[in-house]
Design brief:
CATH class of the largest domain: Mainly Alpha
Distance between the termini: 55 Å
Number of domains: 2
CATH topology of the largest domain: Tetracycline Repressor, domain 2
Radius of gyration: 19 Å
Helix content: over 70%
Largest sheet: none
Order of helices and strands: HHHHHHHHH
Number of strands: 0
Oligomer: single chain
Strand content: under 5%
CATH architecture of the largest domain: Orthogonal Bundle
Shape: elongated
Length: 198
């Protein structure tokens, strides 16, 4: 990596970190590109060299969220535990991270961004690390006969993803006034109990 490329990546990183901090602090719609540029001591040209709009910052946010799962949550999943126990822990750690580190307003904006017809939604990207993590767990659970035999690993993943989206959307609608962590525990207990082999 040459020096110019390193500088460009450092600028991109500074823009992402500053923009996300501002979104957390003041709300996405209350932050302008001009403010991000001013706060990072960069130029509009530098901003638009990396992002077409402030919404595009969220693509990077998605990648960082998924990378957090890989780097910090997966290592905590003890292979001595059942798959359902590991899924329960994963979901608990995931929702704690989203509630405490991402926040409801950024989560709401992520959903708003994903509903735009201007781009392909990152939510549906089959190469997301999140899907890989869940599929490996659910495939193991299927092979171990932890789940009812009427479900494939792919179907279990699909159910979990749909529930994740639903609870995050509901939490965003409530503007973070309900506990995401408490609500997800109730929801995913019902789902995992329903999927569990008798």
């Amino acid at each position: 990596m040459n020096e110019r490329h390193q500088r460009g990546q450092a600028t991109k990183r500074k823009i992402i970190e500053t923009a996300i901090a501002l979104f957390h602090e003041r709300g996405f719609n209350n932050v302008t590109v001009d403010e991000i540029v001013q706060k990072t001591n960069t130029s509009k040209g530098a901003f638009y060299n990396h992002f077409r709009s402030k919404h595009e910052v969220f693509v990077e946010q998605f990648k960082e969220i998924d990378q957090f799962y890989v780097d910090h949550i997966v290592p905590q999943l003890d292979s001595d535990k059942t798959v359902i126990e590991r899924l329960t822990l994963f979901l608990d750690l995931q929702m704690n991270y989203i509630q405490d580190e991402i926040g409801w307003d950024v989560t709401r904006t992520i959903y708003e961004h994903e509903l735009s017809t201007e781009h392909s939604p990152y939510f549906l990207d089959p190469d997301r690390p999140l899907y890989d993590i869940l599929f490996k767990l659910c495939e193991e659970g299927t092979l171990n006969k932890e789940f009812k035999n009427c479900y494939t690993a792919g179907e279990v993943v699909s159910l979990l993803i749909h529930a994740m989206r639903g609870i995050l959307y509901d939490w965003s609608l409530h503007r973070g006034k309900i506990s995401l962590v408490d609500e997800q525990k109730k929801l995913f207990k019902v789902i995992l109990d329903g999927l569990r082999a008798n």
